[in-house]
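Quick entry between incubations.
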Amino acid sequence: MKCASIVTIGDEILIGQVLDTNSRELARSLEEMGIHVSRMLSVSDNAQDISETLTRELSSHDIVITTGGLGPTKDDITKGVLATLSGSRKMVSHPGQLKKVHEILQSRGLDVLPINIAQADVPETAEVIVNELGTAPIMVFRNIKGGGTLYSLPGVPHEAVGAIPAILEDIRKHQEISSILHRNIMVYGIAESALSERIAPWEDALPGDMHLAYLPNPLTGIRLRLSCYGGNPEEKSRQMEEQLAALKGILGELVYADEDSSLEKELGRLLKEHGLTLSAAESCTGGEIAHLITSVAGSSAYFLGSVTSYAISVKEKVLGVPADTIRLHGVVSSEVAAAMAEGVRKLTGSDYSVATTGLAGPRGDEFNPVGTVWVGVATPRSTYTVKYCYKNDRKRNIERFAASALNFLRLKLISELTY
Amino acid sequence: MKCASIVTIGDEILIGQVLDTNSRELARSLEEMGIHVSRMLSVSDNAQDISETLTRELSSHDIVITTGGLGPTKDDITKGVLATLSGSRKMVSHPGQLKKVHEILQSRGLDVLPINIAQADVPETAEVIVNELGTAPIMVFRNIKGGGTLYSLPGVPHEAVGAIPAILEDIRKHQEISSILHRNIMVYGIAESALSERIAPWEDALPGDMHLAYLPNPLTGIRLRLSCYGGNPEEKSRQMEEQLAALKGILGELVYADEDSSLEKELGRLLKEHGLTLSAAESCTGGEIAHLITSVAGSSAYFLGSVTSYAISVKEKVLGVPADTIRLHGVVSSEVAAAMAEGVRKLTGSDYSVATTGLAGPRGDEFNPVGTVWVGVATPRSTYTVKYCYKNDRKRNIERFAASALNFLRLKLISELTY
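Done. Structure below.
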C-alpha cells in the first residue's frame, strides 16, 4: 500500500487561530482511494523548518502533500524552499495560472499588482495544475529528493479542497494503486453506540475482506461505509450489494440514502420527484434550515421560501400564530410549532412546510431546559409535531435542531407519499 | 523562548474521520502564554511510530504534549510506550484517578470492569493530574529522554480541553516563560494583496520585536494580528497601541472591530448599543444572513426575523415587491433589492433591514453572470443598494454575499448614527 504524509505550512495553524480542515479532507480522499496516510504535520512559515520537514517526509513516504504557504504576502516562503529542494535554478511564470490571476482580480474589480503577477511564478522543475479557484498555482514535483512526489496546494480551504480531484487523478495516473471499493449508506435518528449494537450480528458475519466504518456527523447523521479490498471488482461489488441489502433490511427507515448524501439533498430529491413544494418557519434555528435547503443547487425548483420569526410579533403578524396560543402554551410548545408550520404553508402556498421553536441556548426558560425543540410539519393532509431534547451548546443545538427537523419532515413526507 | 510540539495519537485523525480540534485549542493556549508551538503532528496507534515520533520531538522541544491513545480498548498502546521511554519498570495504580473511574462509571449506572480499573494504572515515573472529566489520567513525565517535559492528555475533546488549565499551571510552575502580547483588529472589504500593499510602509517600519500576521476568512474578512515578543509588558502594550492607532488611521472604515470579532457580532453590538432592531429579506443567501445573525447569543434583543423569498410569489405576496418592478428590472436588480429591504422592514416593523437578490450559482441568468448580488439596506431615513460581483462556487458565493451584505449594512448604520 502506498503511503502519504500531509504537511500544513503556516503560522496560523500553529498559533491555534485556524483549524486545519484541509488535512482532514485530503486524508479522507486518500484513504478512500487506498492510500495510507501515516503522518500529518503542521510547520511554521520558516524556511529551515519547512525544508527539514519536507526532506524527512519525502525520505519515508511515496507521496507528500503540502497545503499553505503560497499567499501573496511576505510570510510565504514555501515556493523558494521547493525550488531549492527540487534543484530549480530559476523561477518561470506559468501562462495558464497568470491568465487566471488576471481573470480573478479583474472579476473582483481589482488592479493586478506585481505581487499578484508573482503568484504565477513557479520553480522550473514544477509541473503546474492551474488553480481554477484562486491565484496561487497547484505544483507537482516528481522524483524530488530521490523518488517521492510532492504536491503543493494552496492553503485557502475551498482552493485546497477544490484541488483534490486533480491531485487524485494525477496520483491514479502515476502510481500503482491497489483496488478498493466503497459503498455508503446514510443513517439518521440513532446514536452510534445503539446502531453498533443493533447491527453487531450482521457486522460480525461480514467476509474477511470487507470492513464497515462508522462516520458520524451532527448535520447528516451517521455515514456507514462498507469497504472491500482487492478481488474482482464486479464480483465484489455484487457481494457488497447483497450485504447492504441485508443491512438496509435491519435498519428500515433509519436509512435515508443509498449513497453519500445529506438530509437536505435527499429531501430535495423526493420533493422534485413528486413535484411538491416546501416552505419553512424558523424560530430557534434562525435560518439554518433555509440555509441547508438552499445550499443544494436547484433548490429553487421546490423551495418557495421561509420566515425566520425570532420576535413574537413576527410569529403573530407574519405567520398568524394566535396570541392566545402563545399565551396558553408558551412559545416553545407543540401548539406553536404546529401554528407556525400551518402559517408559513398558507403564507407561501407550499405543499409542505416545516417549523421549529425551541431553546438553542445559552439558557433555557422557566418551562423548558436549554436544548428543547418542538418541530412542526404541515402537509396537504395533516399537521404533525414532535419534541426533541439535546444538551449541547448553542451552535451544536442549532445544527441538531435543524437536522432533526429535516429528518422528521422526511419521515412524514415518505409516509404520506407511500400510503 | 520555550518551544513546544503537540502530538495527536489515533487512526481516526489520519483517515480523515475526525477533525483535530484538540491541537488547535492547545496551540492557542500555549501561544497566549508565550510558548512557541513549532510543530503539530498526528501519528497512528502504532507503538513504533509513537515511540520514534516522541523521541524525535523530545530531542528538539522543551515541552511535548500528546492527546489521545489512552482509551480502554486494545488500540491504545500509548501508555506502554511512555513507560518504556521514561524508563519505568512497572505500572502503579493511581488512587485519585481510580476513585474517579469508580465515580464516573457509577454515575452512568455502569459496572466497573477490569479494563476500567486498568485505566488508573500509570508508569511509576509519571506524575498524575486527576482527569475530572473522564477515566484516563493526565500524566506528566519530567526529564524524559534527557531534559524535556511530556504531558499526556486524553483524546476526547472536552476532556483534553478540560485538562488545559492544569497543564498551563504546571508549565508556569516549572518553566521560565518570556512574555508575548497579541492584539487583533478586524478588516472587511479589501483583498489580502491590496491590504498588504496599502499597509506596506507601516508594516516595514514596525520595530523588530513586533510581527504582523494576516488571517483571512471569507465570513469575517481579514484578521490582522500584531504580536510583540519580550520586553516590559506595559511599555510594549503602549507601543503596540500606538502602532495600531496609526494602522487604523490608514485603513479607516475598513476596520470594523478592535478585537477578534465577526461582522454579525459587531453589528449586534452596534444595534444593541443604540436600541435598534433589524430584519432581513434573503433570496440568494437563502437564510445564511439570518443564520449568522442568530448564531450570536442574545441576538433576540435586536433581530426580529427574516423572510427567505426564494420564489417570486413570496417576494410579491409576503414582501410586497411590485410585480412590475420585477418585470421591468429583473429579479436580480437594485430596484428589487430595495423593494425587498423596504418590504421586510415594513412587515416586521424593524428599524433597519438588509436584503439580498442574486445568483449564487451554479448558473447565471440571461442578464447577470453567476456571482452577482444586489444588496439593499432600508433605514429610518433612506434605502441604499449596492452590487457585488464574485465568481466562486455556490457555497462560497452564499458566504461572500452574506458577509458583503452585513458589511454594507454596517457602513450604512455607522454613517446614519454618526451624522
